[in-house]
Protein 1
Amino acid sequence: MPSKGVLYVNMAEKLKIIPLGGLDEIGKNLTVYEYGNDIIVVDVGMGFPDNDMYGIDVVIPDVSYLIKNQSRIRGIFLTHGHEDHIGALPYVLRDIHAPIYGTKMTLGLVQLKLEEHNLKADMRVCQAGDVIPVGRFTVEFIHVNHSISDAVAFAITCPVGTVVHTGDWKIDPTPISGGMMDLTRFGELGEQGVLAMLCDSTNVERPGFTKSERSVGDSFDALFRGCEERIIVTTFSSNVDRIQQIINVAARYGRKVAVSGRSMENALRVSTELGYMKVPEGTMVDLAQIKSLPKRQICIITTGSQGETMSALTRIAFSTHRQIEIQPGDRIILSASTIPGNENAIGAVINELYRKGAEVVNERSNNLHVSGHACQQELRILHALVKPKFFIPVHGEQRMLQTHSKLAQSMGMSPKNIVITEIGKVIELTKDSCKVTGTVPSGKVLVDGYGVGDVGSVVLRDRKRLAEDGVIVVVMSMSHADGSLVSGPEIITRGFVYVKESEELIEELETLATRVLTECEYRHMTDWTNIKGAVKGELSSFLYKKTKRNPMILPVIMEV
Amino acid sequence: MPSKGVLYVNMAEKLKIIPLGGLDEIGKNLTVYEYGNDIIVVDVGMGFPDNDMYGIDVVIPDVSYLIKNQSRIRGIFLTHGHEDHIGALPYVLRDIHAPIYGTKMTLGLVQLKLEEHNLKADMRVCQAGDVIPVGRFTVEFIHVNHSISDAVAFAITCPVGTVVHTGDWKIDPTPISGGMMDLTRFGELGEQGVLAMLCDSTNVERPGFTKSERSVGDSFDALFRGCEERIIVTTFSSNVDRIQQIINVAARYGRKVAVSGRSMENALRVSTELGYMKVPEGTMVDLAQIKSLPKRQICIITTGSQGETMSALTRIAFSTHRQIEIQPGDRIILSASTIPGNENAIGAVINELYRKGAEVVNERSNNLHVSGHACQQELRILHALVKPKFFIPVHGEQRMLQTHSKLAQSMGMSPKNIVITEIGKVIELTKDSCKVTGTVPSGKVLVDGYGVGDVGSVVLRDRKRLAEDGVIVVVMSMSHADGSLVSGPEIITRGFVYVKESEELIEELETLATRVLTECEYRHMTDWTNIKGAVKGELSSFLYKKTKRNPMILPVIMEV
């Protein structure tokens, strides 16, 4: 291996990259970089539960590998402040302690999150251009554009070489704040030689370019100009530049702006305090004051772009908001894309707004939202600048990873130099090779209320069954002395049938259970597990035959 | 009221139109027409359950109004054979008996459905152009284009006037079978004078025209031409013309066709038997035979375009199909739109196909699907031809109904002549007026297994709670004589926490329940309802504080 660095590298010490989340899946991004005795972590994100994860609030990555290697962790580096990149911090920080590096905006949002959970952390504010030495790594912060302010990519260097970790990004030549992403720096790194690139694949299926954030401002202008009605706008609370544009256009047309929804209020406060948002004096008013203004001077910015049940816009639509009621003619602007799975929830809110006489303008036809991720043409530009030796498509589901691999191949990269893998796999890099060499524990840890990880597949399977057909409890007291039935069986059902209209069925069940118990006594069955099994089996097959349903049956024997 | 017909009409006898489904909602289409003592029903459709209707298979309209007026029902008229227009028949026909009128294809599909449910009905095959007298109504069948063969609109005439009921339709100048919809007849009716029109609003938000079904054939051709791999295509099984096009292109390129999935097999059988499908000889082969063919001669048509769990394509993707396994290189064509709510299920199937090395081509970028509903330009044409005096937009959610109303207004119709209403409302028409005058019972009846209507809001609320946090059963035996605790309390949980890892918590619950019971005894509480209430209350607040969860708590007292 006659490469230049050979003298300085202990060849036994390879660079390991271990994705623990965000690969072959969407959300809960977390990647581990490991060289010698040093570990750094990039992003600690959360994911949303699947439809069949009943009762689950949040999904976080399994970090048992990090817990086991706690003493080697030198730092946590955050690319930006979206939930899928920082949302698991409050849970993971219970077990893992390391300095957290991020930009001002990112750490401002982390701070908010930690306060909610009564947690503290060693946070170190960095900015694009900074190069942070941690153990034998250095981590360089590189400015990128995204749908949140102050997003960065990382150039992570260790003796094996430099890895470019893009985080989420797009190229916006006319952003609202902060300038175009630092293509020059990516190009310089490419000239110096990049060992590998881990690159965002979210929009790899879309041809062309993602539009500039600024183009949405033009759409707002057209909708505010000449409008005599109240205007209510909803968008993602983390999209500070979008909110800035709404405030700008409101001010331009003489409207005051009020805000509704906790996350929107928080975002506005943090971004104003940190200087990411500039609000023209006298523009913001309290929600309580807005009523006294004429319609044409009112603009309300709310949460609820995904139709979330408790969000401000949903409450406004369904008349459960304390301060705002829909008035006929209100112009409601939905400035957000629909996250897959939320179509019906958003549809219900839109229908209700229409029903109350509002005018709803949404994204589809009006250029009211632009993505924060690079499309094919942007991806090609970055590949051409960075020219990595090895390519690891990340931040996407299988179909996106494969499409991204094809895109790289279409630019001349050999498929041998592309690694598509999944979470928990150990990718080992030398100067000349990049391959999967092992596996560490990984997966989904479910958060339900205060419980982290105490709901697993068994509990979920029970919840699914309970959800679909309900529960039937069969209680009986039996004599400790001779195993005879002392009282019962009593039948209690929930979620099965409407009991008042099904008394006959319940009686049939009691009769059947009694018959089974009599038979057990007759056969001198004394093992209560067997007796419970017999009751369960008979009731279950009777019910399936009669109702084609399969409720959970819980026989309980009280020994007296 | 100096209208021409005044001499012949008993003015007390108005035409009533009562939508019992499909208005201000999607699905379960059913409309009642009533004149004097005569009632006719148009369509008897089913709907799909909302996300929070746990365990529900199908939703059907509440037809108690029809049951009450059974003796006056002269006929059921079906516009076409889609589930949302015929799917509730097996349930509704248990209570309602009337001749069913429909075209050959529609009744063929109804027949299949009734056989599955062991039901029989008086079915009368009609064709476009037929005029059926029923009571004082006549119903004329008019040919329209849609995404299923043999769809019709109705011109429903009674002494008050003629109502055009469009059903689902689009204008396809180059359909695969049956010719363009009968615009001439709509025009003639318009010339003669149409009292009111009830018109499909599904695609009213889309500008322009829906593309011809034939255009999809060109896309198939491009994907079959020169392909050396196996081709697997999925589409809606009811779209006979689409299946015909797949078979045609397969035959053109020397491929044999096999079919997988019960509904696809049924659709193929019915449509071939009834002459709606023409299969070139020697093209169809059994699924078992297909393995022996070279890849380039294989085409498999499957169910599963919506990612349904048990469908053929899902089973193929996840390797649970008995006869078909994905081979690297397989070309999978998804020729269907995504019904909102199914995004994630379809996404999971696509990712799994990619993971196994298949190439997936889907609708988005490849013109592999066209809608069956009219877009704005087509709607304008029909409005211009029919020129109804009154307009009732139907078949759509609130936002579509209102958009359709605006479209009609943009063509000169007065808003006073447009009625937007909801199910259960009685729309009363005279020659000069159209207004809502009353309400009849209406709503959603839930079907769960064999049970029709035995699951209502109470049961659903319980299922939701069980799904989210599980159930805790607290059982105790108490003395009949003095109310003292004989045995227990015993705690059983399901769907709450993983019991083996939470023994401590369960013990805490037992201790707490015992304390509550002791206290009850000390206070001489003897009413068991109160005792149960106390146990429930204490456990509930303890658990919420400790876990932030709210499981269903079921205290059971056995009297011994």
Protein 2
Amino acid sequence: MIESKENKKIKYIKRLRENKFMKEEKKFVVEGDHLVKEAYSAGILLETFSVKEVSYGVLNNLITNNIMANISTLKSKPDVIAICKFMDENEKLGDKIIILDNVQDPGNIGTIIRSARAFNINNVVLGLNCASKYNDKLIRASEGMIFKQSVLIKELKYFIPYLKGLGYDVYGTDVSDGIDIRKVSKKRKIALVMGNEGSGVSSDVKALLDKNVYIKTSSDCESLNVAAAASILMYEVAKGDE
Amino acid sequence: MIESKENKKIKYIKRLRENKFMKEEKKFVVEGDHLVKEAYSAGILLETFSVKEVSYGVLNNLITNNIMANISTLKSKPDVIAICKFMDENEKLGDKIIILDNVQDPGNIGTIIRSARAFNINNVVLGLNCASKYNDKLIRASEGMIFKQSVLIKELKYFIPYLKGLGYDVYGTDVSDGIDIRKVSKKRKIALVMGNEGSGVSSDVKALLDKNVYIKTSSDCESLNVAAAASILMYEVAKGDE
């Protein structure tokens, strides 16, 4: 039973909350039975920490409730926390791709990953300027779909031209300038680029794109939350041509 | 220039963060130039607090940066914070209504209000068990649409039968059981009920409903984030019959 905050393993799991350390170690933390099970199914579970006996088939460390309160970032403390290794991503590109350029809110990215899985989008691509893929809020917002969805990290200034070379229609998104998403041919290979919550698609990325799609909205409120907009666009893509 | 945390007004604005006090006083707080302007346009601005001269046409109190850091809940501190009075809601019901039953995340509710305005939904109705309409995160997530959208608070066990009496089709939402939203007649008076993030529509409310709608998704991921799902449903309602 680990009772001390000074325990080496406890210090280690807490440091894994730091972005830089997480990347160096190629490990991240998940909390709660649901996500720990999903991580186990994905084959990336390394070690668990729990307040009561559990058996996930990896080394478990029993810890006190105080230690759990110390290492958990959740308001209502879970029974189990786990260290996982970064996923080996399947780099295979499918016909439907969503690209996030400088999306900063981990909750938005997680929600988009969840909707992407729901609408059979093959790949979610995060630009280098997005929030970290392994951010704990992102993983929770994805409802575990981060473990089932291809999520790639790419430098967009190279990746977008590469996609165009492969014959993808790469669309930017704009509140009104462009083609109504309902009119876009869904039979082709499509990549949609969603931009930052405040400022939209960055000018560097815009310069790489020939066309935009938009969602028809009222003039009272032309812009939507980025995860809401992405979900509607992916829903339309999944629906196919009308 | 107010410099002391012990100043009566400073203590007052901080207490307005408490749900109970906010309701008693029928006042709430907004932060940042964008929302303060929207509150002004809505005619509910009472008094501002700022670190530099501003002129919103109401009493302004100059405060130090330290005091701003003390009363603001934002990471990056705004130049201005305001006290507003609760809005007088237009109780007039339109043909398209979205009802939230026990939706707890203020960000989700704010996002839904924003999408509701974008898709010309007449009324957003919050059950008594939802997060507070005047929660600061909700207001920020709504991007100021809280000031432009009818948002009513109702006891759903009375309000839903009332709507049915008025001839509305009141639909629950379920991951798969029900009618595909694309097949629902949009010409009729429609109310959609969205449920809690974890547990969906509550059993009490379900008992009042005759039918559900669903969004077609992959079997890998049947459930969507509630704001994403609501946005897609409202988008379909706005689109009309196919």
Protein 3
Amino acid sequence: MQTEPLKDTVTRRKLIDVLMNKAMYADLVLKNGKIINVLTREIVAGDIAVKGEFILKVGNAADLIGQETKVVDLQGKFVSPGFIDSHMHFESSMLTVSEFARLSIPSGTTTLVADPHEIGNALGPAGIKAMTEEAKCVPNNVYFVVPCLTPDSPGLETAGYDITSKDMEEILNYYNVIGIGELQGFSNAKHVYKNSPEIIDDLVVSTGYAKSIGKIVDGNAPELFGSELAAHIICGGGVVSCHETTKKEECIEKLRQGVYVFMREGSTQRNMSECIKAVTEEGMDSRRCILVTDDMVAEDLEKYGHMNDVVRRTITQGVDPVEAIQMVTINPAAYFKFEHLGVLAPGKQADIVILDNLQNMNVQQVYIKGKQVAENKKTIVHIPEYEYPITVKMSVKREKINLQDLAVKTRKTGKVAARVIGVIPDQNLTEALQANLFVDNGIVMADTEQDIIHMACLERYGRNKNIGRAFVKGFGLKKGAFAESIAHDTHNIIAVGANLEDMALAVNRVIEMNGGISVVNNKKVLAEMRLPIAGLMTDELSGEEVTQKLMELHECIAQLGGTIHAPLMHLSFLALTTSPVWKITDYGLIDVDNYTVLPPLVD
Amino acid sequence: MQTEPLKDTVTRRKLIDVLMNKAMYADLVLKNGKIINVLTREIVAGDIAVKGEFILKVGNAADLIGQETKVVDLQGKFVSPGFIDSHMHFESSMLTVSEFARLSIPSGTTTLVADPHEIGNALGPAGIKAMTEEAKCVPNNVYFVVPCLTPDSPGLETAGYDITSKDMEEILNYYNVIGIGELQGFSNAKHVYKNSPEIIDDLVVSTGYAKSIGKIVDGNAPELFGSELAAHIICGGGVVSCHETTKKEECIEKLRQGVYVFMREGSTQRNMSECIKAVTEEGMDSRRCILVTDDMVAEDLEKYGHMNDVVRRTITQGVDPVEAIQMVTINPAAYFKFEHLGVLAPGKQADIVILDNLQNMNVQQVYIKGKQVAENKKTIVHIPEYEYPITVKMSVKREKINLQDLAVKTRKTGKVAARVIGVIPDQNLTEALQANLFVDNGIVMADTEQDIIHMACLERYGRNKNIGRAFVKGFGLKKGAFAESIAHDTHNIIAVGANLEDMALAVNRVIEMNGGISVVNNKKVLAEMRLPIAGLMTDELSGEEVTQKLMELHECIAQLGGTIHAPLMHLSFLALTTSPVWKITDYGLIDVDNYTVLPPLVD
């Protein structure tokens, strides 16, 4: 409802006057374009006339050109509605809202629907509110869908704040909040129903309230089919999306059941080429297909672009270019009830992208609310800086630790059987492994020969000082350690180490920095990066500098023997309790399917 | 917002339990169907499981069949979501809401979006409210879009009540009112802008309020293109429909500009076969194409069916059957934001139609809210009678008149030049004609040789006792007269006569009956029909009886020499001031394009 600026009667009356009165004119006319009409799935030659923030007319706008009208001759270039990213997390980029805006606008992204899931887990309503406040300062349209449950798995992990239905009245009414974000709590439907039915009770209250005030609810239904999928849809209030669909058959099932499938194509997880087969191979109606990024890193934004790159890749899969553009314009606008966005038509907000062709989706100019904001891959408007409140910047509340705190201990000697989390490259899923490890002075040791190292997750919000301990296989680390305050979704401090001393130092640096990433070897810090905002994002570095810094951190990890690519991201997802099979939280080793905590040692 | 029953958390929790708990079951399973999936534009074999009013699951529902579950084996029949008529007037059928429900439900129509434009003109909020109250008693889903301006042309005609923006807060909040209906006031954009800009001021206030509380606004943009169409769209708040689109090019223009084109296919005006060419010939995306009836007579409902017949005819034009069904299900559901209707999917209201094939669209069974309501063309549930308030039934407030009251008088003798409205068969448009007529005793006479007869429109709401007088050509009447209290859109009493004496009697019978239709010859009433509800509808006759009575009335008019088919309908539209060029109201002869009243005689 907050998404309809045309409610304003004065503005509407003025637009009508300009259209009907032969002595009044448009502010801006983009003429001689090839207009991508996502309403009719056509490309039609024509002009676009703009008055203030709104489109007056699409077609022949010659009658609206007066002496004061700025006229831009597009010389046959393509004109598209601005692109919408329907599901993204600023936190994944480690960038602020304004820095992400600066980097993504030149690619034609005019609207972001952000899920502040990470800052919500870390800081609760205060964190979410700060982020929505920052969004007031940017030229693009930033909307939010907020978490209704933190942590994802109550009783198995500690978040900085426990969001439940009690918080909905407050956070659903923050600036530009249009609904509830990914419904993590019931994504693992069978196990939650069996083990934590009270979560469902709370979710239906939250989603019911959201729907009652006209908000949307995003679902999150990885690998759900049949009755479980139906239950998830109903839990979400009857109309949900899913951005965790990875297989063609899963996509077909969800589209048939009325789910808006958010085909994910971000920096890490790329599911579009599989999902899109429902359209390209089965010829299904694509009106509920939507392209999203979920997680993007700064480097990719700079190198490849943003939604324009996702569209380009979708076209490569054999989708008609206009149909692909529908998936980032009119389709999400319909889902989110954005009546003012997503199409080029009278009365819509003048968010316009000029492209030189539809093969490379090369964006030349971007207009938001009738004003040009980008030219040739550069944002050309000033974006003011927002100063986050001190509470958001002081998110790490625990004393330093020592190596004893991180150790898995036993009274046994010789070798013991340990449970080991097996990392699977490029997946959130893990394997449940077992290995025999040496005991030294009561401490179970890593074994780099077997590629098994120490792992810990430390509560960092001053709530209980929990430390979860386990072993992990798959990083390749031969020496040293690294730690970070990014650990999905609760974002406690997570660390791995070939030895406990370096690991303790890495953790302590993260504590000292009040959030960040640190790589340590031989009692020395090799590289580090501060993440002052909730321990997740930086307001000190630009996107380019973040990219540089991450390269440096990754190089240091490689020097320690690290073999897996994107080790920091893999580490951060080892705390995610919503995907099977074994994970680590501040409670310890988590058996996801059985919704329980396991000891790190067998017996 | 009032359209989302799944907000109810108790219901949702119960549905989730049935789906997840292996010891709980569906109430009803329709098994072995060919499910018309309007989400994906497919037909997929499967079952539908229902609990209470809602669909639990679509697909294989074997796991939801328990001992108490009623199982219906569809033996491969087609299963469709219930059909939606997105724009209709009960008044056109002369039937009450409940009688229309009884006749239309067996054809698969489960949802009606009614525009109480006629009763609103006649009785204002009180009339609209009574109709919405009746809608509470019927098993189908009846929603309303209400007029925001009566009469259509203030200053040129008298309605029973002047609805303006001052009334919106009240009537937009009546039961099941989802928005503002056809935006008559700005359909004739150029002339209204020039002559009555204050109408636009008021419309933007009304539509702005409607949008601000989440309601929709139907447009009405006959023959509008370019800037005028854009102004109409913006006047309606940015997202409008149009049910007055008659030409392919007009349909293309409107779809490109984001208008939801309501392709009309009712008893009288049939525009679908022309409009649909935008889809069949141009291949345009049909997501904003919607099929509506606008005006249906009882006879056609019985003979041909309702939305199933409209779909059948659309398929005949070469449209894929599932795509045609989308135009009466998911497409209107998207437009009206009916999240609970229009698709067969988990959590949706169980409005289900069983068809034996998609060529004849023969409906065998209909379910509404999970309950069977029709079988083999008969409604099988009892629909209680609603008693309209006495104020609605006493709508004619004027004394009887005499022939002098109806006469066009002059001081001239011999012949005078008179303005004559030329009826065009099957159109709302008229011609502006002129003829020389004899004067007898100061009264200008009809001339049946030239097919020119008397015509009058008498204000009937006790507001000013206006009588408009003029001449008309095209009915073929040689003797007698007829009158009716149906005269679009103000519904004063309209009458034509070969002589004034019979005409006065016909008018007086309508006054005596408190609304209705009367045919008179030689000072005797040949036939008549009471229309007690607002002078527009009957609660005394069934649909079948109305059909019989209308046949009798039409036969009597034919006996008087009447040549035009449907003379009562043609007469009633001669008062419609929103379509060119000459019309009659209680103010007199109306020059529509110049928004002015003309004298019946030249000079």
Protein 4
Amino acid sequence: MGETDWTKKLEEETGIRFRTTRPEEIERESFLMIQEELGESFLASYPETQLPVLLRVIHTTADFYYGESLVFANGAMEAACRAIRRGLPIITDTTMAASGINKAAAGKFGCQVHCFIGDEDVKEEAKHRSMTRAAVSVEKAARLYPDCIYAVGNGPTALLRLYELIREHKIRPALIIGTPVGFVNVVEAKELILQTEVPAIVARGRKGGSNVAAAICNALFRTAG
Amino acid sequence: MGETDWTKKLEEETGIRFRTTRPEEIERESFLMIQEELGESFLASYPETQLPVLLRVIHTTADFYYGESLVFANGAMEAACRAIRRGLPIITDTTMAASGINKAAAGKFGCQVHCFIGDEDVKEEAKHRSMTRAAVSVEKAARLYPDCIYAVGNGPTALLRLYELIREHKIRPALIIGTPVGFVNVVEAKELILQTEVPAIVARGRKGGSNVAAAICNALFRTAG
């Protein structure tokens, strides 16, 4: 621990004592702080295999709410590890989620990351059918990668369309990461996914985000590694 | 309002009545819900020019905490509009933040979006000097784009280095968006930025994120437009 050369001067000037500004220590320190705040009894009661995912989500959001809202359904952790080790493609609903996924970690398993939201054919079809691009993207994924990990961090309509296509046996993701955020249909869409038999990691309620979806993927790479 | 063709069937099957799944209505409905929950007295007391930024941040996070934590310092809104209309480059600390910025909106003003975190020279120098890449990126920005908008959604050390370079007159951002998230040095770094005379939009406390930084940029494009 302790300051590096460049922050020593800053500490002297400001009177602030930084916990650490060393790259290799910041993350470790953060995780220690998170575990300290969660407390021993929470940590002891939380399923051990799921804990690294929760810790990384809290690290990404500084929001302890996820301690209550994160749900692991239908053997999600085991399914996630299998899917990653098989090198299944990861489909995200936003470029932000795709951008937040650690490509080096994904690459080790041969997992490619795809996002169709900006594709011209998706845009055109969405406009034509008065659908969201997120929902049309799911249809494209069902055609190209029916066997995949689907990570939804933004658009609840992606989860709604996923739900329908799963029921119609047109897509069968090995894992759904369902963390869309917002106000319209978000809570409902997440609950519908939890009614399927597909392994899923879902942040119940309104909160979530592309950053949360990416953080979950990145935590899963560590577990699978 | 009302369901589209593809969700009518889903509504019948599930018994859920979706508020709307029409792309053009989802955002409007979301903002109505946010304003309703904030309440009339809050809305009336919140500075009118800053409100669209707050609403978009809450829309992005579903977190009303930002109603208290978002701070606009040193004429931030006026400075932001001027900077955007001048087409100043926007430097982000993460590719996720860069990815979340609406490029079409930025392009209308001629604002380019840059992120140096993945650059080889930044990586090497950070390793050599035992600094974070976020901090080294600020030095690179100071050399290439001293007159810029700097949006920090993740790394507090970027704000610490910005603070130092501002004091050394080596960079003078027209606006700092300071919304890093986390546990180590995050609160302190944000407070230091608020001690400068640089116009700044800062999410005080631990919370924030690359998504928040991008959302603020996107809200500012609308205000400047």
